[in-house]
Every structure is written in structure tokens, then in C-alpha cells.
Specification:
two-stranded antiparallel sheet, six-stranded antiparallel beta sheet, alpha+beta, 4 helices, globular
Length: 183
């Protein structure tokens, strides 16, 4: 994982303005970071080895093993992301601030996957071997990026999600797991 902390200079229309003038076009829901005094940009990955093994298994008679290993990789990258959330929540607590939801290119609506290029330019992804394809997908695929705001204007102590805006909210297995874990 790599992360960087930036002071926020506020929101201008659909853009988050960082101290120093760098701008991220987040789309119509940029207001989600309006309360942020700081933003934490992160990229996590579990690296390429799992994907290489999945490809090997899928090329032979072990399709089910390949599929199950691929699913385990999705869970692993999710767990890595939870460590970043814990870190950000700790930063906010130390300032007696709250935290905003986790945002990433492709969510919320209006922040396209192409926003990945600008987001990844804010952290040193070379440290963890993550690259972007021409279509702005991360390689290794078992990688994730995100942005979380912290500041006195947020009321929550835990990083939230945008599940309530997603068109798959009623059928998403990840959301169902999270709800069951909280119960």
C-alpha cells in the first residue's frame, strides 16, 4: 500500500482542489469531500503472483480452483483496503475530526475510471508495482485506489461507503456481507 496526505483547498463545482492547485474532477458528487480539511489518497495491491497462478489454473483442467483463488484475491485486496480505512480513521481521531466516505474512480457516479490517472499521479505507485493501462485499469488487477476526506465538518467516525447510491445495492454480495458482519 502507498498513501499520501493532502490539504484540501475546497470544492469548486465538480472538482476537489488540493492545496497547491492540483485538481481532481470528481463529478456531480464532489460535495462529498467539501467538509474535508485533508484528503488521503491511497493505492493498495496484493501484487501479481496470485493473478499469474489464476491464469495458470484457468488454462488447464483446474477452472474451479482458478475461480476460487481469484475470489480469494478479491477478498485479500478488500482486506488490504480495510487497513487503509483503519489508518485514516486513526488520523481523524487524533485530530478529533470525522471521516467521509471512501471514493474511487468509477464511484460515485460522474467520477469516471479515467480519473484513475489523476488520482494515481498523487501517490508513488512505482513503490508497489502498480501501473495503469491505456484504458486506466490498474495492473495488477487485484489493486484498488481511493480517496477519503477527514475534517471537522464530518460527523462520522468510520469511513462510509456509497452503497446507497449504487444500482446494485439490493443484490451486491459485498454489501450483504458487510451488513451481516455489522449485525
Amino acid at each position: 500500500a502507498v498513501y499520501a496526505i493532502y490539504d484540501s483547498a475546497g470544492v469548486d463545482g465538480e472538482e476537489l482542489v488540493l492545496a497547491g492547485g492540483k485538481r481532481l474532477k470528481l463529478g456531480p458528487h464532489a460535495d462529498l469531500v467539501a467538509p474535508a480539511a485533508r484528503v488521503i489518497v491511497s493505492v493498495v495491491t496484493i501484487g501479481p503472483r496470485l493473478e499469474e497462478e489464476v491464469r495458470r489454473l484457468m488454462a488447464g483442467p483446474d477452472l474451479m480452483k482458478g475461480y476460487m483463488l481469484d475470489c480469494a484475491g478479491v477478498v485479500a485486496v478488500g482486506q488490504t483496503g480495510l487497513a487503509i480505512r483503519d489508518l485514516v480513521e486513526g488520523m481523524a481521531r487524533a485530530e478529533d475530526w470525522g471521516v467521509g466516505p471512501s471514493l474511487y474512480p468509477g464511484s460515485p457516479m460522474g467520477w469516471t475510471v479515467r480519473g484513475q490517472r489523476d488520482l494515481l499521479s498523487l501517490v508513488d505507485v512505482d513503490q508497489i508495482g502498480v501501473q495503469l493501462t491505456s484504458s486506466c485499469m490498474m495492473v495488477p488487477q487485484k489493486s484498488a485506489s481511493g480517496l477519503i476526506g477527514i475534517g471537522p465538518g464530518y460527523d462520522e467516525s468510520q469511513v462510509g461507503s456509497l452503497c446507497h447510491w449504487c444500482s446494485l445495492q439490493d443484490s451486491c454480495w459485498r454489501r450483504r456481507e458487510r451488513i451481516e458482519a455489522d449485525a
